[in-house]
Amino acid sequence: MNICKFIFIYLTIILSPVIFAANAADPFANPPTPAFEGQMGAPAPDIASAYQIEVLATGLVKPRSLEVLPDGNLLVADGRGELRIINSEAGLSDPIPGMPLVRSVNDRGLADIALANDFASSRQFFIAYPSPPPGESGGAASVEERTRAAEQGETFQVNLIARAQLSADNSRVENVEVISELPSRRLMPAPDGTLYISTVGAGGNRKEVQKLNTLIGKMMRINTDGSIPEDNPFYDRSMVRQEIFSWGHRDPDGAMVHPETGELWTIEHGPMGGDELNRILPGNNYGWPFVTYGKNYDGTEIGPSARTHVEQPIYYWFPSLALSGLMMYTGDMFPDWQGDIFIGAMSPSQGKFLIRLEMGGEEGRTVIEEEHLLVNNDRRIRDIVQGNEGALYVLTDSEDDNELDRHFPGEVLRLTPL
Description:
- There is one protein chain.
- The protein is mostly beta strands.
- Helix content is 8%, strand content 36%.
- It has three helices and 28 strands.
- The protein has helices at 3-23, 119-122, 143-151, and strands at residues 52-60, 63-68, 74-78, 83-87, 91-92, 104-105, 112-115, 124-131, 140-141, 158-166, 173-180, 187-189, 195-198, 218-222, 244-247, 252-257, 264-268, 275-280, 315-317, 323-328, 341-347, 351-360, 366-373, 381-386, 392-396, 399-401, 406-408, 410-416.
- The strands form eight sheets. A four-stranded antiparallel beta sheet has the order 1-28-25-24, with no helix packed on it. Strands 2-3-4-5 form a four-stranded antiparallel beta sheet, with no helix packed on it. Strands 7-8-10-11 form a four-stranded antiparallel beta sheet.
- β2 and β3 (74-78) form a beta hairpin.
- It is globular.
């Protein structure tokens, strides 16, 4: 027998069990070690929170974003780009006319809406959405159309950021103006009048995340006219996208401005494990795809969980909970919740519920307790907002999954004390 052939057969026999074992790796085995005490696995409270649930609105299709208006009404946006008013007495309105055309597939397209800080006087809000290419009139498209466009190298959508105004009587969207052509996931207006924008760094583009000449896997910061703030960390730098505020992000799907410090905080989807709560500092690197507390979906390691000059998350989850939406409670209706962080969970395996994190420590950046609310409701939570009166409003996703036999409309729930 040829010696090379013999060696090949021998190695195949010897290594096959090793290869099989690697392919069959338990994704939850050998969980990562936290960088500091309290970075994950905070205990549940001794006494569960008491609250009551009211369904304020139902019948929503793929809802994405929820905002509270100064008059107490709610503004809800869905993936098709439809905007509606929710009134506690009149219920859910018809779609508000005047929104720009949104390119959607399976009713998902619009990324986010966010009210300007001066909305009460300006009536201005921001829209992050994919638009059909110039010359195309239709917004909705099929998966097949998207695939065909990719195969033929054609433009399927144009990612835009726009500002617009909601009329004083909430009946129409006016003065829509595109301010920038940028990718987006979530929007968050900053106290200084600028606008934060998150972008996705998951999928096949992960090698671009650490490059500063692309916008993949970044937190961006722009002025509300689309220009670049002069105090951005990479302002006036050549060979770098000057919109970048921070980088190394996988998929930030929730953002808030801390009500006390004014800092930007985000939540981020990890791969298999490694969902994160982050405090975003200008010009800093958050590690993805080289530093993560998550693993590949086959259970193999991606990289270390810590590295010099890479920011650590305030808190992380292993396994992942599929996070969406982020806010800190500051109201009086739930005194025990003041200063607590709320996050939605959408995991098909770990559960669908509302996460409450009690914060403490010397600088208020330590998770003391983690409580899961609305567990029995078992709905994917997309967004959470605090009402003017202090109630908590929760936006749940619609589902139409024959394989899992899950068929639910999107809803808005109102949580008040018992």
